[in-house]
## 1
Amino acid sequence: MRNIITVAIDAAREAGTFLRESHHTSLTVETKEDRSLVTNVDREAERIIVSRIEAAFPSHDIIAEERGQTSRGSDHCWVIDPMDGTHNYIRGMGIYGVSIGVIQRGSFVAGAIFIPETDEMYGAEQGAGSFRNGNRIHVSRRSDLSACTMAFDSELRQETPRKLRVLGELCPRIFNIRLFGSTARNLSHIAEGVLDGVIEFSDKLWDFAAGAVIVTEAGGRMRRFDGAALTPGDTAYIASNGLVHESLERIANSA
């Protein structure tokens, strides 16, 4: 597994460095069917990552946001978001990241998240803990929901009434809330204790595959709304420090 996480970290750093260096260059922007945006820079970052993975593990499966799935019948599947937070990037905001997760026989086993603008590299392997720039990280120890800082699903234009009902239940019970527009940023912040939790309704696998390992290996919890274990086929989840998880479940299911 060590070689896998090394490749993930190296690929995330190379792609993220390219993104940072290209941040203020001319972009070609396209709108996809789901109204999300993709740029020429996303596609080049993805090419960088895929080429590194295929050079090291030519028999492994790959799911990449822009190019789709390459199935080779492997037990290992790499899940790539070359730029999580594309909308932020296009608007000149530095809240974006590269996310590379590895799934083995349906389990999240390794992940790397790189936040280029702040040079933060998060990595985790199943059973080995979570790290930021080589230093061990842990989720927060806040157990009082009223002291917690939360993140929330930023796609408020989708399922708007339901999300606003949950948000209305959540806000009076917590200290404050943030909408970063990047799952990579949300989950890395939970893993290091900057945030205490997040409620997401409609993420894609490439958004959270890396963060699922990083959060759980930092001592946190990441589950479906019904409390069941998160699987690669899920889209809605709660991620937290574990101590406030049941409270967030009740709120998420209240609407």
## 2
Amino acid sequence: MHDAVRIAVIGDFNPEYETHHAINRSLGHAADALGIRMESKWVATGCAARDADKILRNYDGLFVASGSPYRSMEGAFAAIRFARTQGWPLIGT
């Protein structure tokens, strides 16, 4: 059991994209405002393409990051499909 909300950020993190840094900051601000502990981890689209179900079950919710085109569009779709079919919380930008 975890004492933090775990969020998987589906995307291919690029340190040159300000929007990717903004996603990290925004998740932190939301957690602070709600008074909760939150852990987020970027999950590369290639990883999601290979085994979305196994990987994403470890998280409480999914955030599909901006940054298209993704390295693996199928991975981004696999994460969305997982959320829709499993009733997992999902937000996308």
